[in-house]
Amino acid sequence: MPIAFSLLFVCLVGILIAVNPVVTFAEDSQVLARKLSASGQILSLEIIHKKAKAIKSGKILETELEIKGSRYIYEVELLDDKGLVWEIDLDAKTGQLIKLEED
Fold first, then answer.
1. Which side of the chain, N or C, has fewer Cβ within a 10 Å radius?
2. Half-sphere exposure of residue 87, counting CA atoms within 13 Å on the CB side?
């Protein structure tokens, strides 16, 4: 029994270590987005969500701020009225559509 408990403990610690950087990155991404939006370097989430819904109507599931090269990009995941999930990439500074694809 002690060996099984030890193996379980090691597995749980490994999972926590593996997941923690992702959670930290997501939190850092939110903080960065707020700072950049407040300084006027990128558009606010409210504006980005309006632009995404103008491209494809539906419910916003998730929005992430990504950095590709020297460009900030909002990746918006949206569920449409037919139950399909779409990925909409928008330039964070201008709101211009970069990519629209079914996820």
1. N
2. 10
Q: Tell whether the model's pLDDT for residue 6 goes beyond 70.
A: no
85-91/97-102 β-pairing: antiparallel
Which class is 2-102 in CATH? alpha beta
**Parallel, antiparallel, or unpaired for β 85-91 and 71-79?**
antiparallel
* Residue 87, strand partner residues: 77, 101
DSSP H or E stretch at residue 88: strand 85-91
pTM greater than 0.90 (yes/no): no
Whether the predicted pLDDT of 96 surpasses 50: yes
Q: Do residues 77 and 56 touch, judged by C-beta distance below 8 A? A: no
